[in-house]
Each structure stands twice: as C-alpha cells, then as structure tokens.
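quick one, three chains, predict together pls
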Amino acid sequence: MKKGRQTYITDKKIYIANTASIAGVDEGKGRLRDFFDYVIDESEFGCKSHEKAEIKLRKHAIESLLKEAEINAADIDAIIGGDLLNQLVPSGFSAREFDVPFCGLYSACATFGQALATGAILLQGGAERVICCTSSHFATAERQYRFPLELGTQPPPTAQWTVTGAGCALLTTAKPKYKCPKIAAFTLGKVIDMGLDDPNNMGAAMAPAAYDTISAHLRERGVGADYYDLIVTGDLGKLGRELLCTMLERECGAVKDRVNDCGCMIFKDRQKCGLGGSGAGCSSLVFCSYLYKTMKEGGLNKILLVPTGAMLSKDSSLQGESIPAIAHAVAIEA
Amino acid sequence: MDIFLTYLKVFAVGGLVCAIGQILINKTKMTSARVLVTFLLAGALLEAVGLFKYIEEFGKAGITIPITGFGKSLAAGAIDGAKDGLFKACTGGLAAVAAGLTAAITFGFVIALISKSKPKST
Amino acid sequence: MDKKEYAELVKQTSPKTKEGRTILLAFVAGGLICVIGQAVSDALSALLPAFDKKDIGALTGVVMIFLGSLLTGLGVYDKIGYYAGAGSVIPITGFANSIVSPAIEYNKEGIVFGLMAKMFSIAGPVIVSGVSASALIGVVYFIIGLFK
C-alpha cells in the first residue's frame, strides 16, 4: 500500500527467513567477527583474480543460504541484487550458477536497500521466495574507482575502506516455523546532489540523501525517530554519520544514540580503514550477520535500515561532475 | 666531515622538494600523476632558464633523484641538441633520458610478469 | 539546508589533513631516498672511473628505477607511500612505481591488452608532457641560436 510520495507499507507479511554472510579477511578481524557465517582466509579466495573472487563470494553466500534454509534453487522465484562493478559482473556471473530467474539492480552502495524493496514488491505480486544479495570487494572496487593496488598513494583523511564480503537474505511469504523479522515498510530514495565533488569524501556526499530518505520515511509513515530502536545507514562512515545526525537533530531532537552506520560498526578503531567501511557489501554484510541475528534473539525489535550509495564513476568525476547520492530505507520489525 | 655535509645537503634539498610536493597534495588534492607532471615540468623549466645547475651544485642527488632531475635531463638534452640543428633539438631530449626510460619499461615489464598484487589490509 | 550551507557544514566537520605530520614524513622519506641516490651515484663513480658525469647520472637513475620497480613488485612500495606521501611519489622511484603498479594490476587481462597497454595509464602524462616540453625547449633554443 502506497503511503505518501515515496513510502510503501507491506500488505502481506514478508518474512526475512534466513540470512547468510561471508566476510573478507579484514572484516573477519573486525568488531563483528563472531557474527559472520564464514570468513575467507585470503583476498583472492583461491581464484585467479579478485573479480572471480567476488563472484565466488556471492555463489558461496547464496549456496549457504539455500543450505541453511533447507530449500533447493528450484524453490526460489528470483535472485535479485547487485554490486559495484561495471555491468554488474559479480552479480550476473554468480547467478549463472543457479537455475533461478535473476534481476540485477544498481544503486551503488545502496543496492541492498533497493534489493530488499524490490524483493518485497515481488512477494506482494505473488512470488513466494526471493533471495536478495549484494557484495563488494576491496580490490575490485579499488581498481575500478581508484588506483592500482601497488601504487604508493596516501589516503586523504576522509577516505573509507571498501568492505570485502557478501550478504544475502531470503525473503518469503511462507510463515517460517520460528520467529523472524519482517519487512514492514520501505521508502524509495530520491537522487540527491548537494554539489560536493570530492570522490574521497563519500560520507559527506551521501549524508544528505540518507537524511532526505529518513525524514521522508518518518513523515510519510507518521512515526517519530524514537519509533525505531536503531536507524542504521549503510556506509556513511564517521563523518557522514555525524553530518546526518546534525541534520536530523534540527528536525527531531536528539537522535545520536539511535543512529548508527554499518561502515562505523564493521571495523575496529585500530584498523586502518579511514573513516569506516563502504561498499555495496557493507550494509548487506552487517545486516545479514550482526543486525539480523540480534533481531532474531530479541536484542533489537524495530530497525530502519538505510543503505546509502554514491552514484559516481571515475569518469564522471574526471568530467567535473559532482556526486549524486541515493538512499533507500527499509523498516524491519520483529 | 665533507662527505657528511654533502649528504646533509642532499637530504635537505631532496626533503624540501618532496615537502613542497606534499603541501601541494594537501592543498589541492592532486593525484600522483599530476604531482609527477608538475615537478617534471618544473625541473625542465629550471634547466631551460639556467637555474638548475646552481641547485644541483648545492643539493646534488637531492634535486636529480626527484622527478625534477628527469625533467632537467630532457631539457638539457634538447638544449644540447639545438646546437646541432632543429632535428637534434627535437630528439635530443628523449635521447638523453633513453637509459632511464628503457630501464623503467623493461624492469616494469619483467617485474609485472613475475609478480602479483599483494593482499592489502586495513 | 541549501548547498552553500551544507558545504560550509562539511568543511567544518571534516577531519583535516595532519599538515605537519604529512609534510615532515614527506621531507624525511624524500630526503632519505635522495641520500640513497647520492650513495649509489658515489659508489658508481668509484666503481666505474671510465664513465663521465652524465653517464653516472643516467646509471644512478637506472639503479633507482630498478629499486623502485623491485619494491613495487614485492608489494612494499605502496606501504611506504601510505606514510611517505609525496616523499615516495616525487623521487624517480615513485615514477617507477607508477609504471609497475598498473602493469601488475592489469596483468590478469593478458600481456598485450593488460600489462603492456595499461603500463602507462599513470606515467603516460609524465612522458607526454616531458617529451613535448623538451622538444619545445629545443626548438626555442634553436631559434635563439639563429640570432646569435
């Protein structure tokens, strides 16, 4: 049911029945190490290139999700998801391993939000089980967006570290035997560009998009920020989170203790990750491990997951374009 | 003592060149390719107007090891060649840095053939 | 909040580059690399008395380029660069690093279209601007020479 300009309230009960998470080496040394289903032991994951490794990460994540849920690929109506690379190579190439309809999506690092929303739409339309999966890999993102790995460059103080990993979630309308979180509503974000043009400061470029989506969601759903136990953005990093809080606090009072960011949660402070993690895999990895497990155990009841994405390319920056950003909000409730 | 003083000067001049580069990076968010081009052209210009040799006398490797030295060789080769006519004026620069370029290309080729990117970690 | 107001907020909130620290590290690292270069040059002139000053200079460059390439291949140069910043970019070893690092990165796309084609994706501008500038300087000197 559409409510307001951007928000949809789900009519059917859309359960997140299972999740699977597979994390990179550094993520496995981070704060959430105990929550990941699997941590790889080297960045190439036994493959000949990092791109192949990202394909394998996704394949593993989806396979372990199927195993965990005790279902076959034939029971899945669609695999939807995306990643950061040109032509969505990891998504498309990993989907060829499964005999399941595939739908590739792109909202940069906000793709997981788009995938959950699209999944909910498919289920509303009659599908029974849908897998949402997003991934990123430090080395593949570095090559596409920045520099060769061996080039000796100094990261600027606002840089972030692309998360290596994949997270996938099984959405279903079939009521599972156990209690599990449901998608209650979602808000599709608008592309917001505040004119920032520093590709090394993505957090600041994305914070206004997160603010725009969150405030639209709260307004259209008719709830306050305190309705949610946690409003968790995708990869704003420390700076973006601070900017978001500043903007939100002008509107709805103190929110700092209930706003967090997946990029701030994933690494330990002593890891050299700049202002925090980023990437399409950041929000999916954190949601599919720590957040989902905590919700299932009752530690959190209502969260608003807001993956954030910067829609730039290397060429768009070189052509002098500023950075348009997007954020999609998904309300997940126990 | 003399040699110590020489090395101290080399260190100071080389350090100074790089510190100027760092200030440029901090202020303008230049990437490494831009920094290299800027300092290369600065070296070539200093040689063209005849100032490079004074810095080199004082700082030795401190100014020739930075990419400014590469620019200086390019300019010096061209200036030398100009004495022998227009043709040498155009080719002299590249001829003067033939050793360095050949080394960079062949070492680069061989080393890239036999090595792989090492895993990077936080 | 409009664009101008937001840009101001970002400027105030963003962490600043540690100017003093980065400049000092660049100074020390750059200075040290130059000292190594001077030592190589002195050693070469002692070993090869038959070479003139120009050849020793060129040979020193070759040795330093070799060192830069080797450290890149071993995966060490980017770690130096993390701390040294411009101190490891500007010396000729940094030029070698900018040639070898894309060559290694794109090795996976094959030797011709990967390694060889992408080798100059960062160092290309250096060579183009350097060679063009030298030709320009040569022509200017040639024309000046005509009037002498």
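The mean pLDDT of chain A is 95.
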